Amino acid sequence: IVRGGGKVTHILKVEVARHVSAETADRLQTAIYNHIANVAIKIIGNGKPITVTWTPAEAAYPTYYHCYSATFNDGGVLHHTQALLRQLIDRLDPDFNNGFTNGKLGVALLVSKPLAKEVYIDSGGFILLGAKSKREEANT
């Protein structure tokens, strides 16, 4: 959900390993949120600065984020996200009893792109690519 509208080029999902307790997973999600939510994070990639700001979809459950990066292509955002994951693990490991170092904790950052075309899914579950919804057709 992009509150207030806006452009989105990439979507980030934070996944904590399944074997981690719910309490630890919540603490880890919150810690990651505190490090990345609405922060312009600058990482050097191929000698060039890459700055990405991840905006949380919902503060109540910080799992999904989005960004708008007209300057960088997918490769730049991918490189940035790989470096960001390494930074997060290095920063958070001491706060979680070195759980990443000893293999008891795991986290993944999944980057995807929004659909390039509008997709209409009707109440029967049928997917129509590029089709207008019945509401849109009635208004034309």
Question: Could you explain how this protein is built, in words?
Answer:
This protein has 140 residues and is α+β, with helices and mostly antiparallel strands. The protein has helices spanning 22-36, 74-92, 134-138; strands at residues 10-16, 40-45, 48-53, 55-56, 64-67, 107-112, 119-121, 127-129. The strands form three sheets. A four-stranded antiparallel sheet has the order 4-5-1-6. Strands 2-3 form a two-stranded antiparallel sheet. A two-stranded antiparallel ribbon has the order 7-8. Strand 7 and strand 8 form a beta hairpin. The longest helix has 19 residues, at 74-92. The chain is globular.
Describe the structure in brief:
By secondary structure, this protein is an alpha+beta fold.
